[in-house]
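PROTEIN DESIGN WORKSHEET
SECTION A - STRUCTURE
LENGTH: 152
TOKENS:
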């Protein structure tokens, strides 16, 4: 299993001020980076058979949805617009591009006339915004886009 993780914590408190419409479900929940790290995003490879962590990749930007291919690749993006391909066995980054905006959509693969493609949507999202609040040095674009890549 390949899991995108956020090393974030929050202290939830009830806000009873009904006039404050900025509070989701009447809660205040400021996000903070988990104690003991400065890395917000992580990808964990976990064995479904044993439950053991096979590898872990950590980085400053929050990591979002992932997709794995039958060819041994795991693709996933982050809040800063980076979109890497990991080796499913080792976690090594084999390829990476900067798509400029948060990778907020789920990557998908599909085939046309025997050729495999990978598509992913970019743009702002609530999850991206929460991770960017704790990494103010990251300044991705807010432009919504869709990218499609042909796989070899």
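SECTION B - SEQUENCE
RESIDUE ASSIGNMENT:
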């Amino acid at each position: 299993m390949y899991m995108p993780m956020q090393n974030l914590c929050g202290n939830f408190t009830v806000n009873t001020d009904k006039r404050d419409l900025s509070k989701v479900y009447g809660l205040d929940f400021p996000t903070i980076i988990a104690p003991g790290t400065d890395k917000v995003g992580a990808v964990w490879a976990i064995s479904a058979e044993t439950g053991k962590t096979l590898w872990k990749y950590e980085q400053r930007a929050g990591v979002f949805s992932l997709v794995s291919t039958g060819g041994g690749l795991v693709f996933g993006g982050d809040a800063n617009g980076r979109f890497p391909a990991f080796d499913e066995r080792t976690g090594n980054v084999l390829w990476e591009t900067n798509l400029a905006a948060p990778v907020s959509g789920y990557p998908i693969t599909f085939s046309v006339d025997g050729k495999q493609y990978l598509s992913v949507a970019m743009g702002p999202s609530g999850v991206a915004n929460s991770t960017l609040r704790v990494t103010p040095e990251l300044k991705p674009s807010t432009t919504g886009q869709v990218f499609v890549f042909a796989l070899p």
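SECTION C - NOTES
The chain has a mean pLDDT of 90.
The first strand starts at residue 2 and ends at 6.
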